[in-house]
UniProtKB/TrEMBL annotation:
Gene3D superfamilies: Glutaconate Coenzyme A-transferase (3.40.1080.10). GO terms for molecular function: CoA-transferase activity. InterPro entries: CoA_trans_fam_I, NagB/RpiA_transferase-like. It comes from Streptomyces muensis. Belongs to the 3-oxoacid CoA-transferase subunit B family. This is CoA-transferase. It holds the Pfam family CoA_trans. It comes from the Bacteria.
Length: 253
């Protein structure tokens, strides 16, 4: 156990790293600063077979600090080959979400009615093929009712209910693994595949999570805390992967 106090951002980094525990030799696709640090931490500790990119088209053999260039390049991963990896399930992506509902449907396209949206977001992009063909997790740096909604305004990433409605062709490889936020870690390990609180980050409460969630959340009778970063993990986060403390900008203390 760590003898050094970890920040909320560092708990989030460790929670994101755990997404790739036991993943084997697959491509990690983290989107966001904290997930990127988490994937690199996993590679340096318990997931050495994990494949990382430079964020563009190179497979890297070392683990540079966030914002720095890799010194070791293992291969080239052009866009066409990246799509092939997605379609064959050899990737675990951690995306963001403008909205997310209890079944794991994700919206990164628009806010409001499709005919006249109030806000334009990224667009659907690769979310449908991500969610139907390879494991998908989500990172939400600010847990709120604006993100965790009863019903998303548009489905970009496919949730458990819609995958079930579409049938075996959609459910065969569909898996939403984890949702990590600044308040805790969530999954869909319930009989009806609705979102469940799996762990709280230290300093948070169940009531705080419920208040910040716009739907009824499954909460076990006893909710553990997110695991404490080890001394070695904190050293890697602070001195090797993120010496500029970019994590603290995404999740302020």
């Amino acid at each position: 156990m760590s003898t050094v106090t970890a920040t909320r951002a560092e708990y989030c980094v460790v929670a994101c790293a755990e997404v790739w525990r036991g993943a084997g030799e697959i491509l990690a696709s983290p989107m966001g600063t904290v997930p990127t640090i988490g994937a690199r931490l996993a590679r340096l500790t318990f997931a050495p077979e994990l494949l990382l990119t430079d964020g563009e088209a190179l497979l890297v053999g070392d683990v540079p600090a966030v914002g720095e260039r890799a010194r070791v390049v293992e291969g080239w991963l052009p866009y066409r080959q990246h799509l092939a990896l997605v379609a064959t399930g050899r990737r675990h992506v951690m995306m963001g979400a403008g909205q997310l509902d209890r079944h794991g449907n994700q919206n990164i396209s628009c806010i409001g009615d499709w005919a006249r949206p109030a806000r334009q977001l990224l667009g659907v992009r690769g979310a449908p093929i991500n969610t139907l063909n390879n494991p998908t997790s989500y990172w939400v740096p600010k847990h709120s009712r604006r993100v965790f909604v009863e019903r998303v305004d548009m489905v970009s990433g496919v949730g458990y209910d819609r995958a079930a409605e579409a049938g075996p062709s959609a459910t065969r490889y569909h898996r939403i693994a984890d949702v990590v936020t600044n308040l805790g870690v969530f999954d869909f390990d319930t009989p009806d595949h609705t979102m469940r609180l799996r762990s709280l980050h230290p300093g948070g409460t169940v009531d705080q999570v419920r208040e910040a969630t716009g739907f009824s959340l499954a909460v076990p009778a006893a909710v553990p805390y997110t695991r404490v970063p080890t001394v070695e993990e904190l050293r890697l986060i602070r001195d090797v992967i993120d010496p500029k403390k970019l994590r603290e900008r995404e999740v302020p203390a």
